[in-house]
Design a protein that fits this description.
single chain, about 280 residues, Spore Coat Polysaccharide Biosynthesis Protein SpsA, Chain A, 2 domains, 7-stranded mixed β-sheet, 11 strands
Length: about 280
């Protein structure tokens, strides 16, 4: 019986998937799930005909790419105890699944080192187009379900859905286990244009909105001790979008939210608790 599900997503990256998919299939005791997220190259058709043992989910009517929704969709059909989310441009080394199965326990999750600490970037200048491998995540399925998966409210390539789920895993007291870089054989390099071509929101705007939203949301989760309901998250994201519209000449964005207001019984005062998030950037 499979112990691990490797979940990958394809939208306009079929040439990458053709190279990486065999390295997923070669892993021992693994299910492989491919989410065709309205892929213009019909990734589902290719995988079904060439690799019939792979589970395929075809999602239609999604002109704009949402990696976090796509990963959630793939996770829903997984039945194994462990889930590994791997981008289609990542070639896994033999033994990836064995190492993960031996080291990721129910109270832990696995991720790659921060990009600045990765050996692959030691001799190069890290740019936004660099393959940072930080989207590679291994997490127990039970924990993933309890967290309600990735926050697919986040939009755009720079939104930080991978950062967000790691923050929430740590809030849940899950131990972080850094995955050895040797678990990745190589990556398929490509341009920033390839990365963002199915995103409506610009890289800069998605980064700013995502930072405002994630920081404020996580502060509120710590106050309330639980996930925010979907409607609350939608309202918070809309506020983050509004706050991200910088005024002419400004190099910062700020939002302040009143999250608790209560009058003290028998006293003539009340307590208010706010969450303030400010993002400042350097002009280049």
């Amino acid at each position: 019986m499979a112990a691990l599900s490797i979940i990958t997503v394809c939208k306009g990256r079929l040439s990458h998937l053709k190279k990486s998919l065999p390295t997923f299939i070669a892993q021992s005791r693994c299910d492989v799930i491919v989410v065709d997220y309205d892929c213009p190259e019909d990734a589902a058709g290719y995988v079904t005909s060439v690799h019939p043992g792979v589970k395929v989910v075809k999602v239609e009517n999604r002109p704009d790419f949402n990696n976090w929704e796509a990963r959630n969709i793939g996770a829903r059909i997984a039945s194994t105890d462990l889930l590994a989310f791997v981008d289609a441009d990542v070639m896994l080394s033999p033994g990836f699944a064995d190492w993960v199965g031996d080291h990721i326990h129910p109270k832990a999750f696995g991720k790659m080192p921060h990009a600045l600490a990765q050996e692959i970037h030691a001799q190069e200048e890290l740019t936004p187009a660099s393959n940072r491998l930080e989207g590679l995540l291994v997490v127990p399925r039970k924990t993933f379900v309890e967290l309600e998966g990735y926050d697919d409210i986040l939009l755009g390539w720079g939104a930080g859905g991978d950062l967000d789920i790691c923050d929430r895993l740590l809030m849940k007291n899950q131990k972080i286990i850094i995955l050895p870089e040797t678990l990745v054989e190589s990556t398929i390099e490509h341009s920033m244009n390839d990365r963002v071509r199915f995103h409506k929101m610009s890289l800069a705007n998605s980064l700013l909105v995502g930072t405002l939203y994630r920081t404020s949301k996580n502060s509120m989760m710590r106050i309330f001790g639980k996930n925010l309901p979907l409607e609350e998250r939608k309202r918070l994201y809309a506020l983050s979008q509004r706050a991200a519209v910088a005024k002419p000449g400004s190099n910062s964005a700020k939002m302040e939210l009143l999250v608790i207001s209560r009058k003290i019984p028998g006293a003539n005062y009340k307590i208010e608790q706010t969450v303030t998030t400010k993002v400042t950037w350097e002009e280049r």
